[in-house]
Amino acid sequence: MELKHVLEQSGNLNYGIIGNCKSSALIYEDSSIxxxxxxxxxxxxxxxxxxxxxxxxxxxxxCDPSYEIKQEYIERTSILITRFKNLDTEFEVVDFMPRxxxxxxxxxAPPEIIRVLRHKKGFPKFKAIYDPKLEYSMGTTxxxxxxxxxxxxxxxxxxxxxxxxxxxxxEKVVAGSEIILTKDHFITISYNEKITAPKIENILxxxxxxxxxxxxxxxxxxSFKHYNEQILxxxxxxxxxxxEKTGAILAAATTSLPETIGEERNWDYRFCWxxxxxxxxxxxxxxxxxxxxxxxxxxxxxxxPDKDEKLQIMYGISGEKILTEKTLEHLTGYEGSKPVRIGNxxxxxxxxxxxxxxxxxxxxxxxxxTHEDEKHEELWSIVKSIVWVVNKNWKFADKGIWExxxxxxxxxxxxxxxxxxxxxAIKISELIQEGKSAAKWTLLRDLIHKDIMDNAWNEKKQAFxxxxxxxxxDASVLLMEQYGFIDAKDPKYIKTVNAIEKELSHEGLxxxxxxxxxxxxxxxxxxxxxxxxxxxxxxxxEEEKSKxxxxxxxxxxxxxxxxxxxxxxxxxxxxxxxxQAYSHLALIDAALNxxxx
Length: 597
Description:
The strands form 10 sheets. A 9-stranded antiparallel beta sheet has the order 1-7-8-9-12-18-16-15-14. It has a 4-stranded antiparallel beta sheet with strand order 2-3-4-5, with no helix packed on it. The chain starts with a strand and ends with a helix. The protein folds into 2 domains: about 1-220, Beta-galactosidase, Chain A, domain 5 (Distorted Sandwich), CATH 2.70.98.10; about 230-595, Glycosyltransferase, CATH 1.50.10. Helices cover about 35% and strands about 20% of the residues. The chain has about 600 residues and is α+β, with helices and mostly antiparallel strands. The chain is globular. It is built from 14 helices and 31 strands. β4 and β5 (about 45) form a beta hairpin.
């Protein structure tokens, strides 16, 4: 995809993501770093232009309009290349966050961004527009040129610093003066002051080591006959959203990117939802990346110290349980969409589905590692506790998968996942204790199954609906087959898929639901729901139609094959937080269908 350098926000999330499993940065297709939080994912932003074009802060390599720009990843890596080229000159901006294994076996992943300017042809001229705004642009960030580095400081209500190291003229970088490129140079943005100032030789070595890290990671991922490139890019994106320190997996790298422009469905997604992360783990397990699976299971175990402690739907990436929601009134929001939120009040919600999803993950872990008895003892205590909680709570209403903020309802998906919790507990019992506990849980599983069949099926709609007694359709019920509750060839499931297509599909994209929620009727498609629908079509035998819709949906990704949370029905532009783990795991899941034959 080539474009002129006159680009500003063009109405789509045309960003690449770089990262090192500690933090990440979003880089627009014109090279501008418009979002980065340091030292880790959930820290305050140091660049936040994506949430306020005027005061958010960014770092852009700027040329005159004669330059064409093309952006792409180095193949099988998360290293981003932005190429600048006109008739006479050419250079590249290579962006990455270092990550590689040191001699002691520990991964080196400092909180920093490295930009290598690679000279290719002629004498390119550019300006480095360096404009950091620390602490979410609160207070005033002042930037000073020192002997060995450039330091940016905010010292108002909070104190923070950011360092820039370069072998370019530091005064020209800070002033935004024109620079002529005659050889390779580097710029390193570091949260920490360096003990030894970096040199170009060290930087290029870090580049090579980071490149090798990603090539090795991709080599461990199976190759597929169909959609291999899309599967691999999605897998790397999921890896980039993992927080290695604890094993947590983020829902997305951003906060407050709106589901609909100008509305207030803007949430902070830099947290670990039990539901999202568990689904990521199941997909990553299929791709053979066991370390991510083990780290996440440890993260969950560490969150549950007491047998009677109830699970929250979400936690901070370091295990925080209090995620108080605040608004940043001084920021205008993405394309004027306010409020900008940090924290997420949904952590207080009751959602019964999380127990089933967690149990499904534990079952997958134990099934794969059948001989790790010490770990199984710890997990078995959690299994028994979850069954106890489900037995006490499955009959009660809750907020549901979509986190409705008004009164609780008996959501079909929540009931389904209560069934999953008991079903997987029985399977775990059979795996590690010869089914001793399975017998007493079978009656509970059958009782929940009957309750769903009796109350979730709507005769008028000839489908399973959103909640008991409701006529509203909901894309989440498509997962009834995936979780093993009902066979794909069961007439009731086929009728449900058809009913959902009739009521929720629009030009191949799906609504989550159409009934009013706390903020009115949704006006954008939730990307994961369309992937669920594609998956369901495949399962009921409509393979050709499924593939056609899959190819169509892939065409709505951005220029690098990345997806956000939502897609606008009319314009097909990407909306919502970005990149979205949920969307990419569902992409992989659907793509694997087309590799079965």
